[in-house]
Amino acid sequence: MFIRVLGAGAGGGLPQWNCGCTICAAARQGRIPDLTQSSVAVSAGGKEWVLLNASPDLRVQLQATEVLHPSGIRESPLRAVVVTNGDVDHVAGLLSLREKTAFGLFATSATLDVLAANPVFGVLDPELVTRHRIAMDEAFMPLPGLTVTAYTVPGKVPLYMEGEGFAEGPETRQLGEQTIGLRIESAAGVFHYVPGCADLPDWLCNRLTEADVLFFDGTVWVDDDMLRSGTGKKTGARMGHMAMSGPDGSLARLAYLRGRRVYIHINNTNPVLMPESPERAQLAAAGWELAHDGMEIAL
After folding, report:
1. What mean pLDDT do residues 41-63 have?
2. Are 3 and 298 in contact, with CB atoms under 8 Å apart?
3. Is residue 178 left, alpha or beta, with left meaning phi > 0 and alpha meaning psi from -120 to 50?
4. What is the DSSP string of 115-175?
5. Domain residue limits, the chain
6. What global pTM score does this model have?
7. What is the topology classification, in CATH, of domain 2-158+173-290?
8. Stretch 7-14: mean pLDDT, rounded?
9. Dihedral, CA of residue 238, residue 241, residue 242 and residue 243, to nearest 10
């Protein structure tokens, strides 16, 4: 199995277009790498690929990834897209795939309903782009040699769907089809992809034990990263993401895992992006890696 990180950043990427925080400034000055918005490509043999989430930066990401370049006139090695939720940073890139090339689009009923309700996604020709509804805990094969099983994780509806009077709290972080994780298996091993997660209950921790490679939600270091950086008031929990640090954070909750562990979907305000920061040192000491654009993993 081949795993290629097309983008490792959260919504807005790094540097974010309207942000002058210390971390974005470091990226603009070339002191740390830029990050496009999160998306991953996976292949069983390196010839045909499935895309996990379609970020707004997808056209640039495809251009930067040679194995995803066209193999002929209007012939792409990209055969399928699997979407884990309806967030803008996971579905907007679908609009860059509208140029009359066939592929399969896999998502939950909840996410497909979101796409169907917005007429702009009608530019994906239904005669070429087949929409497949994912059922929880039922395996499917988007490509020969890759078996994918989706499962619910604690999450919330996309911010743009909240409506008036929405108040974030534990009761809003529900299980359902709004946010899913993916178990991807080939003859080489098992890869779990969970770019958005609001909590890690015991049953989910246990499920991740089998992962040879885990990509997990790395949006914020602490819940109030944005407040501390002076960039906003939204907390990680408000956006449907749990913190890395703290007794209930993902570093502590997943400390028992023995497979390769990689954080992805990293927000521009997360201090782990600074190589010399104590937060980065703590992450490394715990055995975790930080995803970066162009990262390659082979199982």
Report:
1. 97
2. yes
3. alpha
4. HHHSGGGGGS-TTTEEEEEEPTT--EEEETTEEEEEEE-SB---GGG--TT---SGGGSB-
5. 2-158+173-290
6. 0.94
7. Metallo-beta-lactamase; Chain A (3.60.15)
8. 97
9. -90
